[in-house]
Amino acid sequence: MARSSAVGPPHWPEGVQYSQRYIFHSSVTATTKNFIEKGPKSTKNRGSSRMTVIRRVSEPSHPAFGQFGLFAAKKISAKEHILDYIGDSEPIAGMNSTDFVPGEVHTDERIESNYDLSLHRFESGESVGIDAGRMGNEGRFINDFRGVRAKPNSVFTDYRDSGGQLRMGVYAGGEDIRKGDEILVSYGKGFWKATG
Ligand SMILES: C[S@@+](CC[C@H](N)C(=O)[O-])C[C@H]1O[C@@H](n2cnc3c(N)ncnc32)[C@H](O)[C@@H]1O
């Protein structure tokens, strides 16, 4: 399986593969893969990552002080599509394969990952996630609003792209986001319960 060789944006961390496409973990069945890849096509376009910039969080009062966050590189209009959350897989060059925790579309449990996002839950209970722990795009740097501001300014919403692939888009909320503002979503209470 070919691995993306894309170079990440400024501040992209060493040891994390940058990618803008899905790779499917062996836990994903052919039926589930087909559901993710081939839905009704949408006319919506994928957002450009040039709308955002990765920065180290420099305010000591911020609960993720010293980590990274994703910030608006320009004004983003209310409801505008910012980017998609992507995870990818396969060990990066030099990584010991026994240390490798795949970061991709998967249906197995990833309770150890702080970068795992639910993409879809079937009525059967099967859940499809995108784990950007080892590989992903700018979306992996979006922090939760708790302790930063009163409410999130962005939301995760799934959609089908123009090829019919199921995507987890990040959209601005009901108000414009000013240039320089941090993109903040709600991870949901479940995330914080799981991480303690
Ligand atoms: C998806 S990552 C977000 C990017 C992360 N800040 C980084 O530099 O890689 C999720 C992790 O960010 C941190 N984080 C995000 N939002 C937070 C918040 N509101 N309060 C405390 N930690 C937060 C937690 O460590 C969490 O497990």
Automatic annotation (TrEMBL):
Domain SET, chain residue ranges per copy: 49-188
Signal sequence coordinates: none
InterPro entries cross-referenced by the UniProt entry: SET_dom, SET_dom_sf
Gene3D superfamilies hit by this protein: SET domain
Protein name: SET domain-containing protein
